[in-house]
UniProtKB/TrEMBL annotation:
Official protein name in the record: NAD-dependent protein deacylase
Cofactors named for this entry: Zn(2+)
Enzymatic reactions: N(6)-glutaryl-L-lysyl-[protein] + NAD(+) + H2O = 2''-O-glutaryl-ADP-D-ribose + nicotinamide + L-lysyl-[protein]; N(6)-malonyl-L-lysyl-[protein] + NAD(+) + H2O = 2''-O-malonyl-ADP-D-ribose + nicotinamide + L-lysyl-[protein]; N(6)-succinyl-L-lysyl-[protein] + NAD(+) + H2O = 2''-O-succinyl-ADP-D-ribose + nicotinamide + L-lysyl-[protein]
Binding sites annotated in the UniProt record for Zn(2+): 136, 139, 177, 182
Origin species: Thrips palmi
Molecular function as annotated in GO: histone deacetylase activity, NAD-dependent; NAD+ binding; protein-malonyllysine demalonylase activity; protein-succinyllysine desuccinylase activity; zinc ion binding
Coiled-coil region: none
The gene coding this protein: LOC117640034
Length: 273
């Protein structure tokens, strides 16, 4: 059974942290929870009667693009109104400090909310894309889109309460491609369940994980693959892994060198100070 450490052992963590030259931080929805972004599996994980795994799929989009766009429109609006929390800012500050000391500090995030970038982190690998990007189904054009709402038909739509009924917006009124005269239907530029991650992003994640000498795992239930395999791959090389979570995530607990129980807005700034 892994050593169980809590905040009082932050001194032991600091000993390891200060000697590390190449740190990779894996983050999940829990790092944004204190910014008001619902996590996937917590109580806020439901939107209307759906779970993300019901809607974040190519099949759901094919079947009901209006419903899926309502879901993403709601999340875009929540994220655009959200601010980074103390965990995000502590990570951005650590990147600045360690880079100045010639050390590597990279964030590999499962999140699509852009809050690490908003906090000032620049070494951020977004494994699953971004809510603020769209991709055209017809011409594959990918671009940043921060329009609020993303299209007039979605104005005021996407309310999360379970009794809200679907708007059944005709596809011609859903977000359309602005590249030339394409006008193709747009989708969120995120990786859906059942879709492969971008091969370049995956290769970069694997490069970072194989080169690190310390791996932090912050705010993830570690159930979604391939991201869930990243920390175990580092541990398999004998690299110390530190988890920051409000609960013990079953997948990683056996390989942990450190486990800091509590809200990461508190535990991460203390560990990285
Ligand atoms: C792939 C973007 C190859 C979209 C996301 C059957 C058919 C098809 C595929 C599969 C299948 N079975 C398994 C798979 C593979 C599947 C998978 O892993 N499924 C899971 C559900 C079992 N993976 C995939 O499909 C991936 N692609 O494998 O390609 C392939 C191809 C075809 C067929 C087979 C394989 C693609 C996965 C990417 C999906 N896209 N996001 C969008 O966001 O809309 S995943 C999405 O969910 C997130 O990005 C994230 O990855 C995941 C949520 O996980 P977490 O981030 O961990 O969040 P969660 O809510 O679960 O946990 C929050 C944690 O924070 C908790 O531990 C909580 O305690 C903690 N916490 C809360 N508050 C705090 C806190 N901690 C600290 N402080 C706090 N304050
Ligand atoms: Zn197009």
């Amino acid at each position: 059974m892994a050593k169980r450490v809590c905040l009082s052992d932050v001194k032991a963590f600091h000993e390891v942290f200060k000697k590390s030259k190449n740190i990779v931080v894996l983050t999940g929805a829990g790092v944004s929870a204190e910014s008001g972004i619902p996590t996937f599996r917590g109580s806020g994980g439901f939107w209307r009667k759906y779970q993300a795994t019901d809607l974040a799929t190519p099949t759901a989009f094919k079947r009901d693009p209006s419903l899926v766009w309502e879901f993403y429109h709601y999340r875009r609006e929540v994220v655009m109104a959200a601010s980074p929390n103390k965990a995000h800012t502590a990570l951005a500050e650590a990147e600045r400090r360690l880079t100045a000391e010639g050390r590597q500090f990279n964030v590999v995030t499962q999140n699509v909310d852009g809050l690490h970038l908003k906090a000032g982190s620049s070494n951020v690998l977004e494994l699953h894309g971004s809510l603020m990007k769209t991709r055209c189904l017809k011409c594959e054009d990918v671009r940043e889109n921060r329009d609020s709402p993303i299209c007039p038909a979605l104005e005021g739509r996407g309310l999360p309460d379970v009794n809200s009924c679907s708007s059944s917006i005709p596809t011609e009124q859903l977000p359309r491609c602005q590249s030339g005269s394409c006008n193709g239907l747009l989708r969120p530029h995120v990786v859906w369940f059942g879709e492969n991650l971008d091969s370049g992003v995956l290769a970069e994640a694997e490069r970072l994980l194989s080169a690190c000498d310390l791996c932090l795992v912050i705010g993830t239930s570690s159930v979604v693959y391939p991201a869930a395999a990243f920390a175990p791959s580092a541990a398999a090389r004998g690299i110390p892994v530190a988890e920051f979570n409000i609960e013990e995530s079953p997948t990683v607990h056996d390989l942990l060198s450190f486990y800091f129980k509590g809200p990461c807005g508190t535990t991460v700034p203390e560990a990285l100070s």
